[in-house]
Amino acid sequence: MVSRTGHMDLGLLQLATQNAIFLLDMAALPQLVPDAMFIEFAERLFASEEVLTLGYAIGGDLEVLALACPCMRDALTRPQRVIDLMPFAQTVERLELEVARRAPMNNNSLHHSEAANPDETTGRGLSKLVQKYCGNPLDKSNQLSDWGRRPLRRDQIVYAASDAYCLLDVYQAMKQQALRLAAILHVDVDVEPEMPLMKWVQPKRANTFRISQPKSIVNPPPLSGPPLNPRQLHVVVDSMLGGLGRQLQCCGVDVRVLSSSEDHSQAAKVSRKENRIILTAGNPFHALCLQVPVGFCYCVMSGRARDQVVEVLKHFNVRVTERDIFSRCQVCNNDVYVRLAATDMETILKLCHPDKFTQLDESQANSVEPWSDGPGDSSLPADEIPVVWLGKGLTVRDGAAFIDPSGIRLVLDMVPIAMVGCGQWFFCCTKCGKVFWQGKHFQRVREQFGHVISQDT
Asked: What's the whole-model pTM score?
């Protein structure tokens, strides 16, 4: 929801799941929440294979969100399982019209009253869609109200919650309808269609009429011989392959991801300086090949990050085991940790945050789970991670904990106090000071990468 003060003045962000509805006050949150958390939020919600996100004409919403929160722009330009219900509705309508057209010839078709009525189905709007699949139209009377004014009225809150939650019911009904129509017509239908290319992320066209033939891409031959450990593969990827870079990092590969402000030529400089293989896609491959030794530039051919990971690991003959998952810090790419027992972390938290520390019983502690594997908190396998043991090696002074002898300060703000009662290990990155711990999230991520984990461990 945008307020009346302008296009970039985002007032409210609505999220709905089957069990809960969240209304995020975007007028206040940017001043309260660090950019790192917004980035992680966007990566989880829009650029992850784990989460299915629904929207109606969502491309415009993502543009507004990117303008209001520039730190999320990178993730918003790489939507993974994001479904725009507007074009999906058009697909279902075409199926309905085709069934209606074949009705006299097909006894197994839908009843005539269930077939598409052009006067009803061609209406372009979420309210029309809700009426068609849920029986009642969506009350849009509050759509143009002032969403920047606080506090929100009760009817605004109800509308905002309904506007998000209705998409769940609409999508399920559309999905069932699409599958039923496809079965009648004996055709295939994609019920998780990819997002259409958003105009606001397309590069501006140059004012030229030059026509050039695309150059063929010839990658170096795949590596053979004994499989590599993920730590033996050192790569640099540009920002357009950021999703691939983060997933390779989750698998233990040494990855340097260029920022959105660094151009492709920077990849060649990093490759030569740090002896890294360049992973790129498209036309930059040809220019980069000329700037690095033979075999130090690889063009990724797959489209989705999940497929790209498989392609890269297979090409470079890398064997990933369960020990490699989360073996690197997801913030700074470091793979050396200080390992602390729960009792040591409890002592540190009591010294650094005495006013916030509250002893919780075991049942409360076990109910706490890390939210994600990004900046601030994560899941790591307590006994399986290849940790470099540095002993305790910590100094607490002036209400903060530091790693000796580097003096790196531990980031303790995101560590739930309740976790110290779980009797597990904590892992402190020796490069950036982020603290990680084991949680149920690790099991979910391990399952996510099950297709690349070697069974011969």
From this structure: 0.48
